[in-house]
Amino acid sequence: MVGEGRFLVFELIILLVGFLNFAWADDGLISPSQLQMFVDELPNIPRINGFHLRNGVPHPGRLRIGMFPKKWKFHRDLPPTLVFAYGTSQKAATVPGPTIEALHGISTDINWENYLPSKHILPWDPTIPTAIPHTKKGIPTVVHLHGGIDEPQSDGHSTAWFTSHFRETGPSWTKKNYHYHNMQHPGTLWYHDHAMGLTRVNLLAGLVGAYIIRQPEIERPLQLPELDLPLVVFDRSFNRDGSIYMNATGNNPSIHPQWQPEYFGDAIIVNGKAWPYMIVHRRRYRFRIINASNARFFKFRFENGLDFITVGSDSSYNDKPIWVKELLLAPSEIVDVVVDFSKARSDSVILSNDAPYPYPAGDPVNGANGKVMKFIIKKDGVLDKSKIPTRLIKYTPPNVSSASITRYISLYEYTSDTDEPVHLYINGLPYEAPATETPKVGSTEIWYVINLTEDNHPLHVHLGLFVALEQTKLVDLEKFKECMLKVNDAIKCGVGKYARGKKIEVAEHEKGWKNVYKMMPGYVTKIVVKFSYIHSNESYPFDATADPGYVYHCHILDHEDNAMMRPLKFTH
Question: What's the pTM value of the predicted model, to 2 decimals?
Answer without folding.
Answer: 0.95
